[in-house]
Every structure is written in C-alpha cells, then in structure tokens.
Amino acid sequence: MTKLRFHHLEPLRFPLVNRLYKSYYPAGKAKKDEIIWVGDNEKGIICVVRFKQFENIQLLTGMLVHPEFREQGLAKNLLAATKTQINCKPCYCFAFRELIPLYSNANFHLVDKIELPEVLSNRLIRYISSGKDLVAMRYEA
C-alpha cells in the first residue's frame, strides 16, 4: 500500500465519504457542519473520522477504515494525525467495547455516563437503548 496522506476533507470530496459510509458503515453519515479528517492515497479515501461540534466540547464519531486496510494501524495513525483537532477543546467518543484498547492507546479514558455533558449523555443513552454496546471515553493529554 502506498503512503497515506491524512488531512481535512475538501468540501468537493464530501460525497465520497458518504459513499464509503454507505458501503461499510451504513449508520454513519457525514454532515457538512462536522470537521472531517480522512486518510487517502491515489486509490481514494481509505479511512475517515468526524468531529461533531458542540458549544464547549466535541464528539469524535464515525471512525471507519476500509475493510481491505484494517489491522494495519491506520486508525491509530488517523487518530495521531488529528491530535490538533482533538486538543482544540474537550473531546469525547463513544467506543464499541472491542475498540477500547485503540482509543486508550490514543489517550482516551473511560468515563462514566453520569460524568458526560448532558448533550452527550442523552445521546449515549439513546444509542445504548437501541442495542449498541458502547462506552463513553474522554481524551486526556
């Protein structure tokens, strides 16, 4: 695989991200008010992560690595590439349990849902009640 370039998504390429989500993570859908980072090469977008902005916090969401490129450290590299974004204001994520080690290695720590800002705790409760096995995590430098 050729070297990936990690960067903010150019607005013109927005439909390509949603095509990737539609193919491999139908519950995910990029929105124009989110900050979107991608990893790509000459073949196209290989991985993506979004940052949903709230007044004083942000939610890292929708991380996806194309199935052909999983287990190669791309999610870890994408998280490292987005450090400036992660550090700009308090950052949370809702992780599937099997991904706790990935996020822990990127300095996200488990947090009880009662410690979440209300806007996030309501969202997490909704996701869990729909059957998703998620945990809340917060970035700590």
UniProtKB/TrEMBL annotation:
InterPro entries: Acyl_CoA_acyltransferase, GNAT_dom. One of its GO terms (molecular function) is acyltransferase activity, transferring groups other than amino-acyl groups. Residues 33-108 form the N-acetyltransferase domain. This is N-acetyltransferase domain-containing protein. It comes from Photobacterium profundum (strain SS9). The lineage of its organism: Bacteria, Pseudomonadati, Pseudomonadota, Gammaproteobacteria, Vibrionales.
